[in-house]
Amino acid sequence: MMEFTYFTTLVREEVERRTGDCYKVLLNDVTKNNGVVLRGLTVTQDDSNISPTIYLNNYYEEYIKGRATLLNVVNDVMDTYQRNKVNQSVDMRYFLDYERVKDSVVYKLINTEKNKELLEDIPHIEFMDLSIVFQCMVAQEDIGTASILIHNVHLKLWDVSIGKLYQAAKENTQRIQKYEIRSITEVLREITRAENPDGFDDDSCMEDFSDGVPMYVLSNERRVEGAACMLYPNLIRDFAEAMGSSFYIIPSSIHELLLLPTEHIEECGEIKNMIREINDTQVSIEEMLSYSLYLYDKDEGKIIQL
Q1: In which band, very low, low, confident or very high, does the pLDDT at 141 lie, cut at 50, 70 and 90?
Q2: Exposure class string for 219-235: b at 16+ Cβ within 10 A, else e
Q3: Is 99 exposed, middle or buried (0-12, 13-18, 19+ CB in 10 A)?
């Protein structure tokens, strides 16, 4: 069986042959959330300083399982590049000036233990077993919305404290990434409708889902890194007031949280078991947030880790 490094080298060489002399084709390892390392391939034109990164790990999995040939992989990589390439350069000089980026700084939540190495290199604030980290959102025509993780070197360059960065992110994140709370019934109905558009019966679906314990899904409108909504000032407090109850916060993934009023369930052990099972079987390593269960105590007005 072909070894992974050799496989990625062959893909790079063939892509390089097809694209020609005006392009640079490079392989690089990218450390993602929770220490996941992926091998990325980038194709850059001479007159551009940006390129989509095409990760080859899943392609290799398909190859060793016999579901794809090397030719299939190269064809798909080329197709992916053609669909996502950007025929321009991005002027990154603005990123040197904090005043020009401060309104685009947002925060997100990651697991502290699983990102120890990364956290040594980036500004962060610990929050129970999680860490608040910061990124700059870049919205540009042709490339859509991308994010740049903020490192310690950026803070030195800008001469800005973590406190000041957090203050900016606190205001920006809820403005740029507006929250969304939906009942689990609504979410399940949406999934069922998408999976079976022709045979979907709204009334019977409502009956199926209406008898369960009331549960809510919290994320942002993009449903990307929406677990950070837990940090939005007043959001959690206002939800508790509306429910008239304290509630559990279940870390479904880095993208969303489940909210469960405590009056409907007293034994939190079974919820912890559910969190472990979901993380181990349903969530990719890269998107896992935590094995912990959290509680918003309505009387105390704060989130605690159970």
Answers
A1: low
A2: bbeeeebbbbbbbbeee
A3: exposed
pLDDT (tens digit per residue) in 16-46: 999 988 889 999 999 999 999 999 999 988 7
Residue 144: other Cβ atoms inside 10 A: 10
CA angle 265, 269, 291 (to 5 degrees): 115
At 112-138, the pLDDT tens digits run 999 999 999 999 999 999 999 999 988
What is the residue-wise DSSP string for 87-103? SS---GGGGG-HHHHGG
Which tokens hold the place of 35? 């220490």
d(CA 170, CA 155) in angstroms, rounded, equals: 17
pLDDT at residue 82 tops 50: yes
291 exposed, middle or buried (CB, 10 Å; 0-12, 13-18, 19+)?
Answer: middle
Whether this model's pTM surpasses 0.90? no
Burial 251-264 (b: 16+ CB within 10 A, else e): bbbbbbbbbbbbee
Domain ranges of the chain: 4-84, 92-176, 179-305
Residue type at position 25: V
